Every structure is written in C-alpha cells, then in structure tokens.
Amino acid sequence: MPKVGMPEIRRPQLVEATMAVIDEVGLSGASVVLISRKAGVSPGIINHYFGGKHGLLEETMRSVLRQLSATSIEHLRAADKDDVTARVKAIVAANFDGYQVESKVVKTWLAFWAQSMHDTTLHRLQRVNERRLLSHLRFELKKVLPYEQALFVAQGVAALIDGIWLRGALNPDGICPDKAQQIISDYLQKQLAPYLN
C-alpha cells in the first residue's frame, strides 16, 4: 500500500506508467527505473511511497479492481432490479467493459494473475475479487434459483468470464466483448429457462 502523503496526482500517473511499461516489456522487464522514466518521476519516489515494484504492482491492481467495482455498480444501476437475467448480464458486461479490455489493462491482469500464485498479498487481492464476483452473481441468481443451483450457475458464469477473458487476452486480436457476452448469455438462458418458464 502506498504511504500516507503520496500526492494524489502522482498515484494515477504511476499506475498508468506501470501498466504502460508492463504492456511494452512484461512484468519481469518492468523495472522501477523504466516505470519512473515513463511517469516522469525519480525512482526514489516509487521506492519511498510504494517500497518498490511489488508495492506499485499491488497499487496498480487495486486501482484496476476499484475501476471494475465502479463499473459493475454503474452497470447494475442501469439494470431493472427485478430482472435477474439483465442484472447478471450487467455484471458480465462490467467485466468486458472498454477499460478492462484495453491492452495495457489486459496485460496487467495477466501479470497479476501469474504473480498472485507466488505472492500472498496479491493472492489475497485475487481471492477478494473472485469472491466479490461470485457473491454478486449468487445474490442475483438466488432470486430465481434454489441455493445450490444459484451457486452452480454463479460458478459457471464466473468460469466463463475468466476463461473467455484469458483466451481473448492471449489472442493477438484481443478480447471481443460482444462475443464474450453472447456466449455467457447463451449459457445463462439455458440455465435459467427451466425456472423462468
């Protein structure tokens, strides 16, 4: 976590620089020197406020997760509170929103996922994100499905989000948000049909 006193103007600047450098050279090549040069600050700023590259990656992922959370809330606010299908689709749409599928954000997500397997702090962040997604999906699905079925469908939707997202991230053409949402919508309709008719 950044130390108290980190100028707010610098935080987004450093987060953007971190993602840009990861986009260009990957996580292993993203040194404090390259990131600081991209941000136009001295390496000492990063080391002082973030404790180095690891702390900056953590703050970068927290920023991406905050953006995802805000986008999810925005999509849910636009969906009818009584339309479970629309609300689940809103959650799915937030995960494939424009910002989340930008090249620099996608590569940062991939770096984060890979690193989180070996780092307890980043792993904890990943688990929080995973639990939040499942919780939101279950909350909506329990309105029309029995508890066990709601859990099953929530896990299916989450797996499709992650799987389609990962496949798209590794595709040179990137992620196709429309196709992703079509595939998940098809699964969702098949799962909900027996309970909504």
Descriptive report:
This protein is mainly alpha-helical and 197 residues long. It has a single domain (10-196), classed as Tetracycline Repressor, domain 2. The chain has nine helices and no strands. α1 runs antiparallel to α2, α1 crosses α6 and α2 crosses α3. The longest helix has 26 residues, at 53-78. The relative contact order is 0.11. The model has no long low-confidence stretch (mean pLDDT 91).
Can you count the helices? 9
Quote the average pLDDT.
91
Radius of gyration: 18 Å
Low-confidence stretches: none
CATH architecture descriptor text: Orthogonal Bundle
Biggest sheet, in brief?
none
Features:
mainly alpha, 197 residues, elongated, Tetracycline Repressor, domain 2
Describe the secondary structure blueprint for this structure.
Layout: H1 10-29, H2 32-39, H3 43-50, H4 53-78, H5 84-95, H6 103-116, H7 120-141, H8 147-169, H9 177-196
Helix pairs in contact: 1-2, 1-4, 1-6, 2-3, 4-5, 4-6, 4-7, 5-7, 5-9, 6-7, 7-8, 8-9
Short note summarizing the structure:
Helix content is 78%, strand content 0%. It has helices spanning 10-29, 32-39, 43-50, 53-78, 84-95, 103-116, 120-141, 147-169, 177-196.
